[in-house]
Amino acid sequence: MDVGEVRIADDRDFERLKVLADKHDGWKVEYKKKDTTVWTKSTQQTEFKMIKLHTAYKDVSPPLLFDVVMDPLYRKKWDVYMLESRDIGSLNPNNDVGYYAVRSPPPFRNRDFVLQRSWLQTDKEWLVINHSVFHESAPPKKGFVRAISYLTGLVIQPDSSCGSKLTYVTQCDPKGSLPACFVNKLTQIFAPNMAKKLRKACLEYNEWKKAHQPSYKPWLHPEQMNLPRLDVSRCVSTGHQELQEDILDESLVEEQEICSFEDLDNL
């Protein structure tokens, strides 16, 4: 789907994600350690490269991994990069729109997104995709740079025994004027760290869920979905994608000024 396009995802959208996940032609390996590999690929959409991560969790089942990815309350507990997340509305039980704000390491501006998320569960795999859209209730705001997700997706598959395989693909434009050194850190540090944090979150999820609405899983049970119906006529741009006043020229930041992503773990 294109940026700004709001519709129910169909088989073609999920098939595109699977092709990106499975095919490695034109991809360059940037990181490889044990069960985790990170690739990058240049595209014509933006100067920032597409990123793909593949990892395996021998002690995490696919249904558990899917629950952790989809549970919004639990994400607020384990995702140290998330500043704010709120639902806006749903197209149907498998397609919703929401606002998501993320922390950037100092001295960079924090980023935020308005995203349509779509998911599909089959007999053998679980797929999640999102892309940037617009909504009147979430205009760009001061202190944040409105970033763009052309496509971000997850493919979860069963591995040997009770384990799982995860492939994560993302094509984003953070907007602003981020220097190349920041993007290098994103590729080489953030993606593998995300994989480690996600595994840890999975191992702690069942115990946490016992005390937090254990039977409430609207991503599995459509009858539990209580989001308001999305009014597509309100899914329009409210102005510039970024606020122009007092924007920091991030391209002038020296590499040594950038805090490592590990520092964010303590926030």
TrEMBL record:
Concerning InterPro entries, the annotation shows: STARD10_START, START-like_dom_sf, START_lipid-bd_dom, START_lipid_transfer
> GO: which molecular function terms?
lipid binding
Domain named START is located at 15-207
One Pfam family name from the record?
Answer: START
GO cellular component annotations of the record: cytosol; membrane; motile cilium
User: What's in the keyword line of the UniProt record?
Assistant: Acetylation, Cell projection, Cilium, Cytoplasm, Flagellum, Lipid transport, Lipid-binding, Membrane, Phosphoprotein, Transport
Q: Which SMART domains match?
A: START
Q: Which GO terms describe its biological process?
A: lipid transport
Q: Which subcellular locations apply to this protein?
A: Cell projection, Cilium, Flagellum; Cytoplasm; Membrane
Q: What is this protein called?
A: START domain-containing protein 10
Organism encoding this protein: Rhipicephalus microplus (Cattle tick)
Q: What is the lineage of its organism?
A: Eukaryota, Metazoa, Ecdysozoa, Arthropoda, Chelicerata
